[in-house]
Give the backbone structure.
Amino acid sequence: MSSVFKDAIDQFLYPIKELLEDAGVSEIMINGPKEIFVEKKGLVYKTDAQFHNEEALLSAMRAIAQSVGRRIDKDNPRLDARLPDGSRIHVVLPPMAKNGTTVAIRKFSKEKLTLNDLITFGSLSKDAARFLDICIFLGKNIIVSGGTGSGKTTMLNVLGSRIPKTQRLIIIEDAAELQVKAEHVVNFETRKADSERGTTEVTIRDLVVSAMRLRPDRIIVGEVRGEEALDLIQVMNTGHDGSMGTVHANNPVDACTRLETLCLMGDTKIPPDAVRKMVASAMQIIVQCSRYHDGGRRTSHVSEILGIDKNGNYISRDIFKWVQTGKDPESGKYIGEMVSCNYVPTFFEDIVVNKLPFPKSNFLAPEWYNQKLKGDKGEAA
Ligand SMILES: Nc1ncnc2c1ncn2[C@@H]1O[C@H](COP(=O)(O)OP(=O)(O)O)[C@@H](O)[C@H]1O
Ligand SMILES: [Mg+2]
């Protein structure tokens, strides 16, 4: 850890030092000096921690900004930065922030979850995990979709680590978060403009263009949230199969729509319906991450996108989905499991031809789920 940053913590951040050091805390939320919440295992709790007053909190934020070569003041009332330990911080000052200086610190967890962890936590079924492994092996384009904190980056990290060793991977992010374990990885991070230091901005979009010229086998864009969507879609449509990214959306169809909207944000000359066709043909597999009300993070859908129908709507078919069957009365945790949805993906032949051990029967829903579907239909009738 840089000593400037450590000094900043010791001097100014002592009210939240314990929280920063507690590995069980994944996020710290400060709503003005007297109100500090934390997230633990997906649930949010209020803590007793407090800053002495607004001035003390503001000084702490100034020190943090300074330690990473940035500033926060009247003229720059918002700060978005990555701390030396990889944590991410976002700050908004009054008068925009009505509660007083408002901060969220997303802590960087060194222990990255693995595919096996996700299975153990019940976030992903064994079959779905093996199926995703196969999709990666076959070079399917995968978009991980979900809300903030739903586990997108974690999922992308896990999936990226399954990419075959022989391939060259270029990873592009706003803030280097992904730690993909692979043999041949190149990491890029964007840069913000800084007029004081005379540095210019380097965007995700710039880096995707560079990546294309650096002989990638696959490109991974950590978070697609701007006009770089169009570049990623083009990458996916031009033979860099098996590229990946995450997008902020609530379900698989929504993920396609969101990407389409982002594509159109730039000053592209491509007409909207052509963009929609491009998105539809680039998308193959969507992995939807969701944060449930019980605090659990689960993969709610693994779906295949089949293009667009004659009305211009995206066609999405669920291959696996998480179904809730109950709720533990004591812990309040949801009970349920990920089931197959009786849908065989269009590329099943590739699985057979490549002799991958995944029989067609794995796509069949369990009997209890078929009964439930029948029941639900009966009720609706
Ligand atoms: N399946 C999971 N089960 C439990 N915790 C998870 C799971 N996926 C992610 N997390 C944790 O949730 C937090 C947010 O995950 P992250 O992948 O950064 O979300 P996002 O990228 O969607 O904002 C992290 O602390 C991460 O370790
Ligand atoms: Mg993320």
Remarks:
- The CA atoms of residues 41 and 295 lie 7 Å apart.
- DSSP finds twelve helices and 15 strands in the chain.
